[in-house]
């Protein structure tokens, strides 16, 4: 495998395409709208130009609707990818569309792997993503050089559906972490404690992981711009986690609270801020200003 089509050149897709070029793969990059690319990344004018003849088609798209259009649309991935080509879906999308893509690719003799990632754009740029792939052992082995060019490690799952479920639940845990810090810091601030002192205490004792420090730090400082991951997309992902839980007849009650707070933030014009900005609603509910600045 040497030729890779990268479809979707947002904050994550652009550094992914560049890192694949640096690793020596022949890359063809496509995006629905015009975006600035690193000069070393070749741009394709259409999906077909990117996909025809590619060994791997990598999609990093915003949501189900974008994935539907790119994969199932006329002259999309299904129409133009060769028999035996391997589609790697790295977006965070629903279990339903993962199932549909798997079945549709199988019907056409194409291969399919879901490989969502944990990590923000800075991790993508540094090739430090955590990749959660699900597919056949043969396909995952073939993709090992691709994943090595993009991330610090992989956590294989039994299949595409399981890989996406693991990603959705991981994002649910991250959003829940932000919610917990927002509630604790808000009560502490009203009781005379600074969020910074609480952050130092908790990340130095109970919760010392980099993810907890990142989200706790955002909530403590109430600095939510520029967004590493926009709140509107965080709401989408928590909604997908709830949808998956309902399909499995498993309750996810904190997910409903997260959706309520994110929806309120959206209604107040904050869909563009980082998703840790759900803390603004927690603060307002307690009678504090949305940020400390």
Description of the molecule:
With 293 residues, the protein is of the alpha/beta class. Helix 1 (13-22) links the parallel strand 1 and strand 2. The longest helix is centred in the middle third of the chain and has 31 residues, at 160-190. Helix content is 52%, strand content 11%. The model has no long low-confidence stretch (mean pLDDT 96). 44% of the residues are buried. The chain has 2 domains: 3-158, NAD(P)-binding Rossmann-like Domain (Rossmann fold, 3-Layer(aba) Sandwich); 163-285, N-(1-d-carboxylethyl)-l-norvaline Dehydrogenase, domain 2, CATH 1.10.1040. It has a 5-stranded parallel β-sheet with strand order 2-1-3-4-5, with helices on both faces. The protein has a 3-stranded mixed β-sheet with strand order 6-7-8.
List the helices and strands and how they pair.
Blueprint: E1 3-7, H1 13-22, E2 26-30, H2 47-51, E3 56-59, H3 64-72, H4 77-80, E4 86-89, H5 95-107, E5 111-114, E6 117-118, H6 121-125, E7 129-131, H7 137-150, E8 151-154, H8 160-190, H9 195-204, H10 210-221, H11 231-247, H12 253-267, H13 279-285
Parallel strand pairs: 1-2, 1-3, 3-4, 4-5, 7-8
Antiparallel strand pairs: 6-7
Helix pairs in contact: 5-8, 8-10, 8-11, 8-13, 9-10, 11-12, 12-13
Spatial ordering of strands, largest sheet: 2-1-3-4-5
Task: Characterize the largest beta sheet: strand count, sense, and whether it forms a barrel.
Answer: 5 strands, parallel
Structural class: alpha/beta
Q: Report low-confidence residues grouped into runs of 5 or more.
A: none
Helix proportion of residues, in percent?
Answer: 40-55%
Mean pLDDT: 96
Q: H/E order of the elements?
A: EHEHEHHEHEEHEHEHHHHHH
User: Could you say how many structural domains there are in total?
Assistant: 2
Shape: elongated
Radius of gyration: 20 Å
- CATH homologous superfamily designation of the largest domain: NAD(P)-binding Rossmann-like Domain
| Total helical elements | 13
- Looking at the overall shape, the CATH architecture of the largest domain is 3-Layer(aba) Sandwich
The top level CATH class name of the largest domain: Alpha Beta
């Amino acid at each position: 495998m040497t030729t890779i089509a990268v479809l979707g050149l947002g904050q994550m897709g652009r550094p992914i395409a560049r890192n694949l070029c640096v690793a020596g793969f022949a890359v063809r990059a496509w995006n629905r709208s015009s975006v600035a690319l690193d000069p070393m990344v070749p741009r394709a004018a259409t999906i077909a130009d990117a996909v025809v003849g590619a060994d791997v088609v990598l999609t990093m798209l915003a949501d189900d609707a974008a994935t539907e259009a790119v994969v199932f649309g006329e002259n999309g991935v299904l129409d133009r990818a060769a028999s035996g080509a391997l589609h790697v879906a790295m977006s965070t999308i629903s279990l339903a569309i993962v199932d549909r893509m798997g079945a549709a690719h199988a019907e056409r003799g194409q291969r399919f792997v879901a490989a969502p990632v944990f990590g923000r754009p800075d991790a993508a740029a540094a090739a430090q993503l955590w990749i959660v792939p699900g597919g056949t052992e043969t396909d995952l082995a073939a993709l090992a050089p691709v994943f090595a060019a993009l991330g610090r490690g992989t956590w294989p799952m039994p299949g595409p559906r399981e890989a996406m479920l693991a990603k959705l639940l991981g994002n649910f845990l991250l959003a829940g972490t932000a919610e917990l810090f927002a509630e604790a810091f808000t009560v502490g601030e009203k009781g005379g404690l600074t969020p910074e002192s609480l952050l130092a205490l908790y990340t130095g004792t109970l919760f010392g992981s980099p993810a907890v420090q990142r989200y706790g730090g955002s909530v403590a400082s109430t600095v939510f711009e520029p967004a590493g991951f926009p709140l509107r997309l965080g709401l989408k992902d928590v909604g997908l986690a709830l949808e998956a839980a309902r399909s499995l007849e498993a309750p996810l009650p904190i997910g409903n609270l997260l959706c309520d707070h994110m929806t309120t933030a959206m209604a107040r014009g904050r869909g563009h801020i980082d998703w840790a900005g759900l803390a603004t609603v927690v603060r307002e509910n307690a009678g504090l200003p949305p940020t400390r600045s």
